[in-house]
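Write out the 3D structure for:
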Amino acid sequence: RAKECGLNVEVLPEPADDAAKRAEYLAEEHDSFGEFLAGGYAAIAERYYRPVGREDDGPQKLHSTLKRRLDEVADYRPGNDGLVACVTRGDILVA
């Protein structure tokens, strides 16, 4: 969809085998907010967690690898409002 909107993005295929997929979704977290502009932006701006699963936003699905990471990494709990409700409802994109 990003390319359809004119954004220049590189779309990488998902790994073919299960071990590579698992290694990818269990990779170390990356704090792009904290690193942006060498941390300067984080010093002046508040972190934003986009809410998910709100009725007004229409149907949404979470990628199945997010559910797997939530299941396998005990301390991985993103701060997005509505995330737990989406997972509980089963709003998971099967991949």
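The first helix runs from residue 18 to 25.
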